[in-house]
Amino acid sequence: MNFELTDVQSMKIAIATWNERVSPVMDSARNLMVVTYDEGAEVSREKLVLPQVEICSRAGFIADLGVQVLICGAISRQYEMLLERSGIQVAAWFRGDVDALIAAIPRGELKQARFILPGCGQQRIRRRNRFGQNRRA
């Protein structure tokens, strides 16, 4: 995970949600929580339903909201690229309770283990093959 929020003074952040938690897969997410921060404090929060259309149109929908950062679980490379081309920074591989995540953002606590999907963003494990050479797992 290469994502880091360093300045949330004035920012609009969308979080893909499912049952008040971060949706595990962005591509099939049906809801967004859009949070606006001003001077480092949350000033508004809005629940939205994502249109169930192809990902290109969903990326356009999110971009039209004026979102600068999208926080989600797993996401396909194609969807991520569409969002990034729309000027949205994608922060993938997150999990957890949405309220706790929103509270953690201005405190700079997003990198806590409780918000990161297990096994994501860690170095790949190297294994030795039967000839004693390293290979990627």
SSE topology sketch:
Layout: E1 10-18, E2 21-22, E3 31-38, E4 41-49, H1 55-64, E5 69-71, H2 77-85, E6 89-91, H3 98-104, E7 126-128, E8 134-136
Parallel strand pairs: 1-5, 5-6
Antiparallel strand pairs: 1-2, 1-3, 3-4, 7-8
Q: What descriptive keywords fit this protein?
A:
alpha/beta, two-stranded antiparallel sheet, single chain, 137 residues, 8 strands, 6-stranded mixed beta sheet
**Coarse morphology:** globular
Number of strands: 8
β-strand amount: 25-35%
Major β-sheet, in short?
A: 6 strands, mixed
* Helix/strand structural class: alpha/beta
Give the distance, in angstroms, between the N- and C-terminal Cα atoms: 18 Å
Helical fraction equals 10-25%
Unreliable segments (pLDDT under 50, ≥5 consecutive)?
A: 122-132
What is the CA-based Rg, rounded? 16 Å
Mean pLDDT: 86
Architecture overview:
This protein has helices at residues 55-64, 77-85, 98-104, and strands at 10-18, 21-22, 31-38, 41-49, 69-71, 89-91, 126-128, 134-136. The protein is α/β, with parallel strands linked by helices. The strands form two sheets. Strands 1, 2, 3, 4, 5 and 6 form a six-stranded mixed β-sheet that branches. The chain starts with 9 loop residues before the first strand and ends with a strand.
Give a brief description.
The protein is an alpha/beta fold and 137 residues long. 19% of the residues lie in helices and 29% in strands.
